[in-house]
Design brief:
Layout: E1 15-19, E2 26-29, E3 32-35, H1 39-43, H2 45-53, E4 57-61, H3 78-88, E5 92-95, H4 101-108, E6 115-118, H5 125-128, H6 132-139, E7 144-147, E8 169-172, H7 174-188, E9 194-198, H8 207-214, E10 219-222, H9 225-233, H10 248-261, E11 264-266, E12 271-274, E13 283-285, E14 300-304, H11 306-318, E15 321-325, H12 338-349, E16 353-356, H13 360-367, E17 376-377, H14 382-388, H15 394-397
Parallel strand pairs: 1-4, 1-7, 4-6, 5-6, 7-8, 9-10, 9-15, 10-11, 15-16, 16-17
Antiparallel strand pairs: 2-3, 12-13, 12-14
This protein binds adenosine-5'-diphosphate and magnesium ion.
Magnesium ion is lined by residues 359-360, 381.
């Protein structure tokens, strides 16, 4: 980790441009959104508070949703500026434009300790295109740059990567450092046994991660729809369950690879099968899937069964390090959330280092009310997977090296 850190910068009196991840989950109410989980905003507070306390002028840049390079009013960051105001107990100026005269004038009036938020950078086509002209226009607004947007660090966009070419010093923020500490540092030489729990919808989303983790994991526990693809690959009937027909060879390769590496690769031994993916549908436990007929014709496996829960709980109780990515069933429907909740509870009880990697698994842990029982919960979805896979993230690679 030889990149410059926020702590290395002299920020007093300077205009510090900070890329943050304010892409928060929301609920749509007609023409506007209501923030349902402000974790990402709160996680940026250590960096923002540090800058304010050290007399910097903090200029925040962020994206929200997918406005695709056009100004879409419902994706405005204005409500986020108001919310941030309440969190830091200090006014947050809002610039309706991301570059040019409007932000320049607002910034010219800033005092040390003040905070300004720029409008959604993705309102400009130059953002996702990583257009040097837009990157340069953003860079003009500051003296130094800090990237604290871990969740966007796997994208080479103008505000996450391109901008560093036009500004003297670029450093990691505190959230970025924390994400790297756990997802890279802790997982570099994990305390053993190291157990990985992989679920979610598709094997294809996670091939790279599974392969990379086979180099280090002692045991991999599989759940979610991804388990169906592995069953099918071994000739176990999956009924009407969701699986990836074009990934059966790949699944067989992964199973072979696990064997060669001496990694225990466990598939569910039973399932909760149902007629439809909806509340109130007919459902039943399959009994041992591997020994019997698999999933019934016309039925779908929507959660791991009780025997699998017991098996996985035993494995989890032995672990010293646990990495979890992907729910074990269709947890959005309470009837199919039992397996996912049971696994979250097993983790909560364990004394291991427990790392939750991004996306829906994080939502599941929060829904179970167990977030504070985990060692670390990543704010990144795709970024956390790419980092664990060992990929270089453009948003980190672009920062200044420590000399
Ligand atoms: P994460 O965001 O944690 O990486 P994914 O996005 O890969 O997880 O997968 C989450 C989705 O997988 C959820 O929407 C969940 O409903 C779905 N899912 C989990 N198990 C099943 C299953 N057995 N059948 C169909 N969908 C499933
Ligand atoms: Mg997801």
């Amino acid at each position: 980790m030889n990149k410059l850190s926020l702590r290395d910068l002299g920020v007093r009196g300077k205009r510090v441009l900070v890329r943050v991840d304010f892409n928060v989950p929301v609920e749509e109410h007609g023409d506007h959104f209501h923030i349902t989980d402000d974790t990402r905003i709160r996680e940026s507070l250590p960096t923002i508070s540090y800058l304010r306390e050290h007399g910097a002028k903090t200029i925040l840049m962020a994206h929200f949703g997918r406005p695709k390079g056009r100004s879409v009013p419902k994706y405005s960051l204005r409500p986020v500026a108001d919310h941030l105001h309440t969190l830091i107990n200090h006014p947050v100026a809002f610039s309706h434009d991301t570059s040019g005269k409007i932000p320049e004038e607002i910034i010219a009036h800033m005092q040390p300790g003040d905070v300004t938020l720029l409008e959604n950078v993705r309102f400009q086509a130059g953002e996702e295109a990583n257009d040097p002209k837009f990157a340069e226009a953003l860079a003009k607004l500051g003296d130094v740059y800090v990237n604290d947007a871990f969740g966007a660090a796997h994208r080479a966009h103008a505000s996450t990567a391109g901008i560093t070419k036009f500004i003297k010093q670029s450093a990691m923020g505190f959230l970025m450092e924390k994400e790297l500490k756990y997802l890279r540092g802790e997982l570099e030489k994990p305390a053993k046994p190291f157990i990985v729990i992989m679920g979610g919808s598709k094997v294809s989303d996670k091939i790279g991660v599974i392969k990379a983790l086979m180099e280090k994991a002692d045991t991999i526990l599989i759940g979610g729809a991804m388990a169906n693809t592995f069953w099918k690959a071994q000739g176990i009937p999956v009924g009407a369950s969701r699986f990836e027909a074009d990934k059966l060879d790949l699944a067989r390769d992964l199973l072979k690879h696990a064997k060669a590496k001496g990694v225990r690769f466990l598939l569910p031994v039973d399932a909760l099968e149902a007629e439809e993916v909806k509340a109130g549908t007919r459902k039943r436990n399959t009994g041992k899937v591997v020994e019997g007929h698999g999933i019934s014709e016309g039925w779908q496996a929507l959660d791991i069964g009780h025997a699998t829960i017991a098996l996985y709980e035993t494995e989890i109780s032995k672990a010293k390090t646990i990495l979890w990515n992907g729910p074990l069933g269709v947890f959005e429907i309470p009837e199919f959330a039992e397996g996912t909740i049971a696994i979250a509870e097993a983790l909560a009880k364990s004394n291991a280092v427990k790392i939750i990697g991004g996306g829906d698994s994080v939502t599941a842990v929060k829904q179970a009310g167990l977030a504070d029982k985990m060692t670390f919960i990543s704010t990144g979805g795709g970024a956390s997977l790419e980092l664990i896979e060992g990929k270089e993230l453009p948003g980190i690679a672009a920062l200044s090296d420590r000399s």
